[in-house]
Every structure is written in structure tokens, then in C-alpha cells.
Design a protein that fits this description.
alpha/beta, globular, three-stranded mixed beta sheet, L-arginine/glycine Amidinotransferase, Chain A, four-stranded mixed beta sheet
Length: 349
Amino acid sequence: MSSQAKTCREQGYRMPAEWEKHDAIWLAWPYDPTTFPDRVERVEITYVQIVKEIHEGERVNLFVKDEQTKQKATQLFKAADINLTQINFYVFGYADVWFRDYGPVFVQNQNHELAMIHWNFNSWGEKYETLLKDKAIPEVINKKMELKCFKPNIVLEGGSIDVNGKGTLLTTEQCLLNQNRNPDLNKKQIEKYLSDYLGVNNFIWLKRGIIGDDTDGHIDDLARFVNPTTIVCAYQEDENDVDYDVLKENYQILCQAVDQDGKKLRIVKLPMPKVVSDEDERLPASYTNFYIGNEKVLVPVFDHKNDAAALSILQDLFPTRKVVGIRCVDLVYGFGTIHCISQQQPCPV
């Protein structure tokens, strides 16, 4: 079901904030040893932990590549005492797990009616040709859901944006203004698309992302709204660290930023972990890559000295939810963690 006559905003739709009530979380089961070298089974264990923590508060819509994979996931879930009635399986030959970026972004109107946005996905600037097939995922989903579907016909990944649900959007220049995404569009034109399709009217542009991030500076590794007036910001205290300058610059931008009503925002620093691969390659580990569920906030942790401090800061900011650390030492080898692999589906009522 397609809707091209009017934009989302003209039809009264907006993108809800992530802390607004969900009906479900979307995930895709890991299987590719290219993404997770020598550690697919360990990443599967991470997924079981994620599903275990989140499934009591919202349904889990899970893509699996075939029936054999479905059976394997089912066995692992049973062994972990996961309630299978909370799991909906979608069998489809997808390429990889980064659902936040290739999946639909869900929007709602004032009557809480759900619609989806199907952005163009070009594999983060055509970096990985074998992953381009995942641009079909929104259509696969909508064959079953039959929602109103908006197609802006521009390239955008879900991890590149974050909203407070009141009209303000966070993003980065490195990603949205990158010549490998929409080379014919300038900042004002990009803002017009974001306004028309996400229902926002105020934009906070950070500069660049962290070392090791192959998405060209996705916002969910840098800064996130935790409520309409508060942003957590990844910050590197070590002046000798390669990420120090860019994260300091982003923090300073946020300290000067205002919300949709022209009011200053509260900015809270989150420490950074340092995580490297077996080849001593810097991996894009960040505590801001958390998922805000109905009852729990799932936060990636990395066996790092800053894990406890990050969890404590976030627990203070989410007093009505339980903050849970999920060990992502293996998951981050794919250059993303919990927020990157997930997408929330808002509750229809």
C-alpha cells in the first residue's frame, strides 16, 4: 500500500521518540562469518540475551534466512526460557543484520495509526555491494503489515537520525551531507525531506563520527535523546585519543543547541570505551548505541573499565526503566551494536 500524493507531515504523521510505547522490536538473526569472523555462535548468544531481556516488554519480530535457521533460533530461545508466543518469525534471505539502517522507519498520526517510510538504502554509500539486497526488507514487511507506505526516494539510514518526538532531530553532516548518499541535495533540501517525512522542524547538526565507524558518522554512536530535553553525548576524556577532538567539538555544538521551542537542552557526557579487533583495528564501540524498550534499556558493554559508569549514568536518566548491560565484545566486530541491529515499531494505541 503506497502513498505518494502527500508527505507524512501533510497527512499528520510524525516519528515518535524511541521511549514512546512500542508494539514490537525488529531484528535479523546473525549468520554471516564475513560480518562476524570466527564468532557467529558467540553473536548468536548475544542475540539470545537481547531477546530474553526485551521480549517480556514487547513482541519480537525476527527475520531468519531459512527454516533451518528458524529451528536453531527456536531451540536457543527454548533453552533460555524465552516465551515463544512473543516471537514472530519472518523467513527471508536477507544479507545482514543491520535492521536500523535498511528497515522501515515507523511513523504515527494523532490517531496512533501506523505508517512506514521506505527510504532508499545504498549500503552506506555503496560500500558493500552484497548487502544491497536488504533494501527490499521494508517491502517484505509491508506485504504482511499492509501499512500506508511513504517513499521519499532519497538515501537515508535509520541510525543516522534521532528525534525527541517533539520536533527536534539530531544528525551529522558527515553522513547526511556525504557525496555518497544524496550528492544533488544540499543541507536545506535534506532538512525539507526530514521535515516532510518525520514531522520535525528543528535540526541539530553534529560534525563527524568516531574512528572505525563505516557508516560515515551515524548519530547513534555519538549522541541520543533520552527524554525531550536531555541528550547523552559520547565524550572522550583522554586528550591523546584519536576521537578526542571530534567528540569535544560535537559536545560543544550540543551545549549551544536549542530544542524546537528555542530552549537550551541538558547535555550529559557518556564515557567512551576503547575496543580493538584481533588485528588491532579500532572498532566503533559506543555506549550511546543503546535500545530504549518499553521496560528496559539495553546498553552495549565491552568488558571495559567505563562500563559501570555508563550504566550508572543511563540508569539515573531512565528512572522508570531497568538499564541492562549486554556484552557486545563480539557483536561490535560487525561495526555496530544493539541500536544498529534493531528497529522499534510504535504501539498503535
